[in-house]
Amino acid sequence: MDADFSIELGAEDPVLDFPWTNPAGKLSYVDLKRHPEQIASIEEAQKFSELRECLRTLNSPTSKVETAKCDTWATTELTPEEEIYDASHKSASYVDLVFSDMDARLSLSCHQQFVKKLVELLRRVPEIPSSAEACVRRCYFGEGSAVQEGFYFTLYVSGYGNDEASALQNWGVGLKLAGNAVVQLSRVG
After folding, report:
1. How crowded is the C-beta side of 27, counted as CA atoms within 13 Å?
2. Which residues is 70 bridged to in the sheet?
3. Which positions ≥6 away from 8 have C-beta within 8 Å?
4. How confident is the model at residue 144, as a pLDDT?
5. Quick one: angle between helices 164-188 and 49-58, nearest 10?
6. Which of 38, 49, 149, 178 has the greatest number of C-beta atoms within 10 Å?
7. Can you tell me the distance from the alpha carbon of 99 to that of 3, in angstroms, rounded to the nearest whole number?
8. What's CA 81's distance to the chain center, in Å?
9. How large is the average pLDDT for residues 163-168?
10. Residue 186: which of 78, 84, 110, 73 has the closest Cα?
11. Strand pairing of 15-18 and 130-141?
């Protein structure tokens, strides 16, 4: 499995407010770690069983992370870097992850070490038409005057194929491997 990570801390890079609510007030953070039954309120998890299972895995008691946000999409527009998959379709998703432990949330080195180990683990997986990328970014925890600056990481997973069904299947395999790798690393350290 192709896997890589990046550190994105520039002024123009994405940031996360945690907990979050979208500007229209229609969507907001759902605490699946402490309330797993609320997975039914996440539209993407209802549409895609692969994502639902990954969210359950990532928010499980054995995981040191919890999910903050997610989304899925499909496209036939691939980048030149994705030509190596010799595919015409891509199914993809992202999941924003925060550490459950506040000290870890505030530590850049903790995030760097974790995503580096995650990528190393995913690169050991046999070649499959899937990819993963973990991006460490800034996160603002809390609300009002109690906000603390820390970090989170976004886990992107993509699956490739010559039709929508095979791309979706390869995405599902990649998502399962990535979720299991996060939990495996959680148990190690």
Report:
1. 9
2. 95
3. 14, 135, 136, 137
4. 75
5. 10
6. 178
7. 21
8. 20
9. 98
10. 110
11. parallel
